[in-house]
Structure prediction request, 257 residues.
Amino acid sequence: MSRGSGTKEGTLRGCEAFCASLHGAQLQPLFDYLPGVYFVAKDRAGRVMMANNVAVQLCGFEREEDMIGKTDYDIFSADRADAYVKDDNHVFETGESVIDHVELAPDPHNSINWFVTTKIPLYSDEGEIVGLACIARNMTSAHEKLRPYMEMNEVLDYVRENYADPIKVEDLAKIMHLSSSQFERSFKKVFKISPTKHILNVRVRAACRLLSTTNDTIASIALEAGFYDHSHFIRNFRKVMGLSPREYREGGREIPW
Prediction:
């Protein structure tokens, strides 16, 4: 495995050929929208050929161009680079992917965080391994981003299990030990919809399942899905789905979401 970067001009030409052989240039913009996910593609010499913004920043660079052509030994300490290269070589030599490997890695602030890393081989049109792609998720930051959603899990479970019964926002607020107004603000901040709209969505989804999988009458489905009368059901079903329950059933629609 090369520890050098080669000339910048040669590296950039190699990068263009590498991306062209993988059709990677068309996909690269997508990788910049993966929240908290580090993405890098390397050639067989271990040189970085592609990197998303998260990877660029995590490795201490300002632009992707500054990272292109670098090897792990140019970026990390020798002991960290040795570990990463060992995994790379396993992929290159066996063609086997490294899946969900848990490891410690530094960030630009010299903190040490847990990462879950996956590496897969990349093949040319001729079937030869020409490099690898690596994604890594920072589990420390991911946990912080997921924390607000996890805190609402008990509320989501309650709605999922009790949608057929009357549900008051005050009852959900009590689960979270909040006032109704505090709970509504918190729920809307996390999910971008009100608790009442979420309950409606869950009930409509349940009705869609019953319309698709049973021969029950629309009136009985309305009650089973938690709507207090037939007209209330039809009005709200149309509001969410854009068509009536009967039209949905006759159209053979699949269960949404």
